[in-house]
Amino acid sequence: MRVGIVGGTGEIGEGMAMRLSRIMDVCVGSREVQKAHETCDTCLISAKERGINCSVEPGSNQQVVDESDLIILAIPFKHVESTIRGITGWEDKIVVSPVNPMERRDCFVYTPPTEGSAALFIQKILPSNTRICTAFNNIAGNRWRDIDSVLSYSVPVCGDDPDAKRIVMDLVDSISELKSFDAGPLSSSHIVESITPLLLNVARFNKMKDVGIRFV
Ligand SMILES: NC(=O)c1ccc[n+]([C@@H]2O[C@H](COP(=O)([O-])OP(=O)(O)OC[C@H]3O[C@@H](n4cnc5c(N)ncnc54)[C@H](OP(=O)(O)O)[C@@H]3O)[C@@H](O)[C@H]2O)c1
């Protein structure tokens, strides 16, 4: 399976690319292909320094969608609509949303669109045969990039297509010590997305870093 990361140059995108490209073929997408090249170089150098194989290719966001079976939308919520509408070929793809709509006011606040969640908004604007899952919403970008550290978080996965959800859960379980949990249909995504402002507030008010979740 080939995994594409739209916005693969960003805070979580690059860290995901570094980790995923060691275990599968990854395509890093950007609006500027040169930026995607730089992220791929970072992945390759980091893997080479550790004597690990790495399979990563740069491309435009359109190339990522064209060439991948599963696409992670690693872009801020405010740019999701323009990005999705600017790309064709979403039909039959699996799309993973780690997207959390939120704002920083006195503290971090969950600010979902009228559809109820980023995931349901994404579902509304993608073709009806695109299979969407929510995953990776609650892992801090720093933790992805801290490449030698173990990721031992729980990852809730929401989605309506059982086959797509199984594939996404298997993907989660292939990364470090992440453990996937079925968190229900896509309409439950608001619960998962809204955990992230909670984690950020807990980190801030308790002087902690990169707070995550683990179900026991
Ligand atoms: N950061 C975290 O710790 C974290 C944790 C969990 C979930 N998330 C979620 O993951 C998603 C990505 O977060 P992030 O912090 O990685 O974001 P980010 O670093 O701010 O941006 C990610 C990428 O989005 C692309 N981008 C920026 N402006 C754009 C525009 N106007 N149109 C299209 N693409 C644009 C950029 O790629 P190019 O310039 O290369 O095109 C950028 O590298 C968000 O939805 C966030 O809620 C983040």
From TrEMBL:
GO cellular component terms given for this protein: plasma membrane
InterPro entries associated with the record: NAD(P)-bd_dom_sf (IPR036291), NpdG (IPR010185), P5C_Rdtase_cat_N (IPR028939), STEAP_metalloreductase (IPR051267)
Keyword Oxidoreductase recorded: yes
SUPFAM superfamilies the record matches: NAD(P)-binding Rossmann-fold domains (SSF51735)
Residue ranges annotated for the Pyrroline-5-carboxylate reductase catalytic N-terminal domain, each copy included: 2-101
One GO process term, biological-process aspect: copper ion import
Keyword Membrane among UniProt keywords: no
GO molecular function, one term: NADP binding
Keywords: Oxidoreductase
PANTHER family (UniProt xref): DUDULIN-RELATED, F420-DEPENDENT NADP REDUCTASE
The protein's name: NADPH-dependent F420 reductase
Species of origin: Methanospirillum purgamenti
Phylogenetic placement of the source organism: Archaea, Methanobacteriati, Methanobacteriota, Stenosarchaea group, Methanomicrobia
